[in-house]
């Protein structure tokens, strides 16, 4: 049970020191200063006692209760004490010391040695190279850093010890309370995914925030995160999403950072909310932990000044929220009670002269209106009344309605007291009103995700597995797809111009001719694709042109023949593909196809398996999907056929792990009811052999 | 001279009060408390003196020096005292009172009356409905709100009094100094553009920030802003850029908010930097006011922890900055001086144990490296040394190099003293490192803008003005464009199917047929466009099909004929257009054309006139431009021809103000050297008559 890390009955500190400048002193100081209620056992070969706690020379001498050991000794010396912990029957160890994997191969070997020892004695090991844990409710603080946030309900898990220090310092200054904080260090044993579960089980934690550099096992993470997110909000700041950032993560932790798109898809699917900055991480956390979720995205703004109201409107709209259209009753009610020139449209502007009483009446009216899902209360600094009285009023009125209320008592110098009251009443406040938009949007997104189906998966199609595997073995990807009822347009391979013309006559004009070679994937680049051939003469000429073009533009290419293919018309081009991510496994993608796939970058991806509703949502999120709904005279395309292809590709991705990449581009989508055809298919299997064929 | 508002030798307060709860008291209190060095003349019919200053019953009795009057009396009573101010020879008046335009038509009439009086006596009037001015260096504070920021070099002008109050309160709390602050109120006379010039002339102001809801005269603003921006940075937060926000601005101030794209184009052209939030406004301001501009966009990151370094990398990359690749010399130098496991790649991680001395050595090395244009120094909270000592070191080392240095001494609780030192040393600090990205990007953008040519305009083409005007009078937009050498493909109008076939024979197959009617603009929607007609039979059939389709899909449409047009092939479709913005005047736009123009929304716009380099930059910013450079087998298009069309359209926009809208879509761009043809042209003139024709 990882919870023992946060609630041990006794803690041994191996490497305890009497020297106030040493980390081995800082840990004991923190346990003592922050009122750890359990037993504290400093281990020190010479000292008698440290800060009033009796010292021991050896862990075997330490009496019960003893649930946790903290190692703060040089990396090279850690193995023996860890073994002794195992012998003593300790099941939880924090290795706070650095000098392991982060310093190079030698350190990595030391780290792996520790892991072997931990395995042998069935110990769980947090770290090495970590700050340890904080639980403000027990309370326990195993870190050596000065200060501790006050008790609250935000949990924070971090793959960077520095971020733990920074967040702790920030939390103390900002007066934001935390429940648990954990520094994961090098994660030789306990990782972010397991810790997520431990935070989920903690009743004091109402929202889990995380600073993540890399994920140990993407698949396990999203499965766990989805379960946890059903219980309580999970908000993640993923570092290293940019190209250079990914490199920096790799050089910092050795972790594979993964692409931004894949992480975003993984987070979206598992209900994990994403923060873009550290400040936003805790803005979202306060909204999610302190206020109820809104039923919808209609926000009412209550303000004593026009300008800040407009800023709020801009920010809410940019975040995908809408302004509530107030009911006539609410307007009438407000009209009778607000000063004459007050604005009764949303934002409701009660004007500078109004006090907390007017705020109370108006806020109550807004929250009573069924057209309002959430409210933002803004106060521009004024000298008429005590801002703290407005803080009291907001907290009081919000508490009787089950709708989220956020505040922007603006400024800094004049609102200290008000801020304390707002924190106590669990109303998140922002120095400028724009700050409220991201948390409100996250709350709406979470509500929507919780409401969504838990992802019912479609029945897998039964196929002739033997036949499918045979095709795959020969890299006949198009035939392979045929087994899943993903068909290409009628096509045959010709070895000379006459044969091409004969085939064209059989399958019917117009036809396309294209080079068949395993070596070239972008046929249009070298002129090896001829379209719209209407008759025999055109086919004969095109055949020769292709040979000439290949000779000129790509001499040396092995020409295995020229494909003759019936041309489809009146449809739209879509790309559907499978990729395999090193961290999250199989992905399905869909988007605008054809030659412009890279130019438009109109692609959505999701981690397989996907269900029908998810396939629909993916398609809806692309411009390709917009086009398929019918666009400017283009008839609606056969969306159902595209969805079916996506679901089959999802199935293939799971059933054939040897396929590392498979791409239908274009999937040619005819008008509604007429199907979709895999015009070009490109695949690659584990080991690297790649084939281009229709 | 607007500068008198900030530096009057004597101020009369009309509506002064002895009652501490009244605004007329607050103003005098602020003048006194904040040490206004000039004469203070309270006007009050009964009081003898207020706060030690002798009261006067009438403005005519007030002795010299008297340069400024502040009116803080009910709107209805303001006209007479203002007239008396005029008689007394006062040239500058602040009308602080509300109750004017913002309350409705009656208030608006009162406001206009004040304006007439001001005109008559050649008085400049700030407000009404405003907070007045602050100049921290004089010092003078004509507002009635409590508190004043300390002296600094950031100027802030605001179209919202509430934002002035919020920013003042925030500045006091955050310890950020300001030079001047002005609340513009209803702007019946003095507006944001004039005030911009006044701030430009103030030597204490090093950066001008503005909260803008609407711009009085877009044209005048960008002309002025460009001049001012050449002298000192201008950063604007434009409120009301979203749809709902624009509505809110309109209902708040009656100002036309204008579209986000046009404002962005206007700001970009005039060198105005845009902030997205209030916090960013002053983040940018601190960077621009306190630090030199970087020569390029290569940033070095110096940190004592990996995680925050990665966050910084992500944020810098997202903002368009790059990580400097350090020279070998720098790396060697650092290797010899930093702890063994320190990271010598950028970010340079000197590790947790390093102190301010190591920071000093490393920062000096980084700033000495010619590969580095700017540096960001990060400190994760630690207990080894006093953060204030690092603040001293950063300020000292930065001062001897002419490169910008920003800091992120992270956290809040532990860095109070450090922050004070950083402010004094003019080093902007951010609680988390992501905050440094936007200011650095703005500094790079400003440097680039200052370097850019001041926009050399191309020679205007000489055309037969009479002929052009005749075409325009008849709404023959295509012929009109022909006068500017913008040609369409060969085209004729047919009145029956046989005539269409005959024309097709003359101009050559393939041809397109399309409905000619003033009533329909989206011909593809109703099936009134037939393409790729290869022979006489196809033309005859298509003619009938169009008539049938129009009857079915748009019965009642007046059919003025069917156009027969030679079809061009092998080219790319671009849109080039003119729009007229109510605030900024003529705009030129360019982007991806064809039926997908609305789907792709790939359009860049600029305010006319534009020069060649700007036309190039606009094209480069679109995907249409990327495509024209050659894409996947598509040969490069005739960019020069597109640029020429853009420049001619810019000329037309200026020379023919009666054209409210003109759009070439598609401009069909053939391969390099082969020209571009206006396939479809749509225009509209002032007054609303609209014509569709080729």
Explain the overall architecture:
The structure is a homodimer of 694-residue chains. Chain A is of the alpha/beta class. The first copy, chain A, has 4 domains: 3-205, 3-Layer(aba) Sandwich (Rossmann fold), CATH 3.40.50; 292-451, Rossmann fold (3-Layer(aba) Sandwich); 490-566, Dna Ligase, domain 1; 572-691, ATP-grasp fold, B domain (D-amino Acid Aminotransferase, Chain A, domain 1, 2-Layer Sandwich). In chain A, 38% of the residues lie in helices and 21% in strands. Chain A contains 23 helices and 30 strands. In chain A, the strands form 6 sheets. In chain A, strands 9-8-11-10-12-13-14 form a 7-stranded mixed beta sheet, with helices on both faces. In chain A, strands 24, 25, 26, 27, 28, 29 and 30 form a 7-stranded antiparallel beta sheet that branches. In chain A, strand 15, helix 10 (306-318) and strand 16 (322-323) form a beta-alpha-beta unit. Chain A is flat and about 100 Å long. The first copy, chain A, starts with 9 loop residues before the first strand and ends with a strand. Residues 253-257 and 689-694 of chain A have low confidence and may be disordered. Chains A and B meet through helix 4, helix 7, helix 10, strand 16 and helix 20 of A and helix 4, helix 7, helix 10, strand 16 and helix 20 of B.
């Amino acid at each position: 049970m990882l919870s023992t890390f946060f609630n041990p009955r006794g803690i041994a500190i191996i490497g305890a020191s009497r020297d106030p400048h040493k980390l081995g002193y800082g840990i004991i100081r923190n346990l003592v200063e922050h009122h750890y209620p359990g037993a504290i056992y400093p281990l020190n070969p010479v000292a008698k006692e440290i800060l009033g706690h009796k010292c021991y020379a050896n862990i075997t001498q330490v009496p019960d209760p003893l649930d946790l050991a903290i190692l703060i000794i040089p990396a090279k010396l850690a193995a023996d004490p860890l073994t002794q912990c195992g012998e003593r029957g300790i099941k939880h160890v924090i290795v706070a010391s650095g000098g392991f994997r982060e310093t190079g191969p030698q350190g990595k070997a030391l780290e792996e040695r520790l892991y072997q020892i931990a395995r042998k004695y069935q110990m769980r090991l947090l770290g090495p190279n970590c700050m340890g844990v904080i639980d403000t409710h027990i309370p326990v603080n195993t870190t050596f850093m000065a200060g501790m946030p006050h008790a609250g309900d935000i949990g924070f898990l971090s793959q960077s010890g520095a971020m733990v220090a920074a967040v702790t310092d920030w939390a103390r200054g900002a007066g934001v309370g935390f429940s648990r904080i954990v520094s994961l260090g090098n994660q030789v044993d306990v990782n972010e995914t397991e810790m997520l579960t431990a935070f989920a089980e903690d009743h004091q934690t109402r929202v889990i925030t995380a600073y993540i550099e890399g994920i140990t096992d993407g698949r396990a993470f999203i499965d766990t995160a989805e379960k946890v997110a059903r219980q309580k909000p999970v908000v993640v700041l993923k570092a290293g999403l940019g190209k250079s950032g990914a490199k920096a993560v790799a050089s910092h932790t050795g972790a594979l950072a993964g692409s931004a798109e894949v992480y975003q898809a993984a987070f979206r699917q598992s209900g994990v909310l994403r923060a873009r900055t550290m400040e936003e991480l805790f803005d979202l956390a306060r909204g999610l932990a302190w206020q109820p979720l809104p039923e919808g995205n209609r926000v009412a703004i209550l303000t004593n000044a026009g300008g800040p109201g407009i800023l709020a409107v801009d920010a809410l709209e940019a975040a995908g929220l809408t302004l509530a259209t107030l009911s006539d009753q609410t307007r009438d009610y407000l009209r009778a009670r607000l000063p004459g020139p007050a604005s009764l449209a949303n934002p409701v502007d009660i004007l500078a002269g109004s006090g907390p009483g007017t705020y109370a009446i108006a806020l109550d009216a807004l929250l009573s209106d069924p057209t309002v899902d959430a409210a933002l209360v803004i106060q521009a600094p004024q000298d008429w009344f005590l801002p703290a009285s407005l803080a009291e009023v907001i907290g009081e009125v919000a508490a009787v309605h089950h709708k989220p209320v956020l505040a922007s008592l603006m400024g800094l110098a004049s609102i200290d007291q008000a801020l304390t009251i707002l924190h106590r009443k669990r109303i998140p406040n922002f120095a400028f009103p724009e700050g409220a938009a991201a948390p409100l949007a996250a709350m709406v997104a979470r509500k929507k995700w919780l409401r969504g189906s838990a992802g019912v998966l479609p029945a897998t199609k039964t196929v002739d597995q033997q036949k499918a595997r045979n095709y795959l073995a020969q890299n006949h990807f198009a035939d392979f797809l045929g087994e899943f009822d993903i068909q290409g347009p009628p096509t045959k391979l010709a070895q000379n111009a006459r044969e091409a013309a004969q085939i064209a006559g059989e399958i019917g004009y117009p036809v396309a001719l294209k080079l068949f070679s395993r070596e070239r994937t972008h046929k249009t680049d070298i002129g090896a694709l001829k379209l719209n051939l209407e008759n025999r003469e055109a086919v004969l000429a095109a055949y020769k042109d292709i040979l000439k073009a290949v000779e000129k533009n790509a001499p040396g290419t092995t020409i295995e023949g020229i494909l003759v293919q019936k041309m489809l018309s009146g449809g739209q081009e879509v790309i559907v593909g499978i990729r395999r991510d090193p961290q999250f496994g199989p992905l399905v993608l869909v988007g605008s196809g054809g030659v412009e796939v890279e130019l438009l970058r109109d692609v959505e991806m999701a981690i397989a398996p996907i269900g029908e509703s998810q396939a629909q949502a993916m398609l809806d999120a692309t411009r390709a999907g917009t086009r398929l709904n019918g666009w400017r005279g283009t008839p609606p395309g056969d969306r159902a056929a595209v969805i079916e292809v996506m679901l089959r590709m999802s199935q293939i991705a799971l059933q054939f792990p040897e396929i590392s990449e498979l791409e239908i581009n274009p999937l040619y989508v005819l008008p509604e009811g007429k199907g979709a055809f895999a015009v070009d298919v490109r695949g690659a299997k584990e080991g690297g052999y790649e084939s281009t064929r229709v």
